[in-house]
Amino acid sequence: MSRLLTFALAGAMFALPAAAQQQQWFVPGQGQQQQQQQPQRPAQAQQRPAQGQAQRPTPTPPPLPPGQSPPAPVIAIVDVPEIQRVSTAFTQVREAIEQRRARLNDDLQREQQRWRDEQQRLANERAGLTPEQLRTRERDLQDRITDSQRVLRDRARDVEQLAQTSLREIEQALGIVIRQVATSRNVNIVLPRPLVIFNEPQFDLTEEVAAQLNRMLPSVNLPAEGAGEQPPARPAQQQPQQRPQQGQQPRRN
């Protein structure tokens, strides 16, 4: 295919001057233009060597002095998912994150039910409220919903950040342990198990790395969850403060 394209391009390049000559035969009054174009052709020919000089390759740099050759490869294998499965720190973080996510989801469900109940209560009391009272109650409910949503979003963000920070700490500890075990075995290349099709058991360092990781990092220090009951408490604190204002509004009118 490339040869065919080369021949086609070459044929097109040779066909262009012939077509130009045919156009010169049939167009009258081109004698003067041909005389003006002929002196320009040597200029184009002079430019071609300049282009050829610009495309010349740069001189090859001198070779570097011989350096130290790398050592002979000594390969070992590590199964990272298996290490995570038996790691006490990883199990602790996974269970703690799952519990916090479950509590967050329960709080979200309770808050949504609370919002629906208050909206229904406001709809039932709508007939006995003045327009100003109705606007105040609606605005108060919307403010409390917005505030609860913000608190729940902050809690969700804190849980995700805690998960990332804890997993990063475990990952750093695992890297240190792998280097320690590899150095003790004079291993200079460690491969993950998915990249290896077959290996002898002597090349597998998974069990030793997992045991050393549990000794080095048995657990992770997780901060206490201090915002567990914050969303349900805020609406209860705001309602007593705003109801007297709603009772005072008819007196002003």
From TrEMBL:
Residues annotated as coiled-coil are 94-125
Q: Where is the composition biased (Low complexity)?
A: 27-57, 223-253
Any one Gene Ontology molecular-function term assigned to this protein's record: unfolded protein binding
Point to the regions of Pro residues compositional bias.
58-73
Q: Which InterPro entries match?
A: Chaperone_Skp, Skp_dom_sf
User: What is this protein identified as?
Assistant: OmpH family outer membrane protein
Q: Where is this region: Disordered?
A: 27-73, 220-253
Q: Which domain of life is it from?
A: Bacteria
Would you name any one GO CC term? cytosol
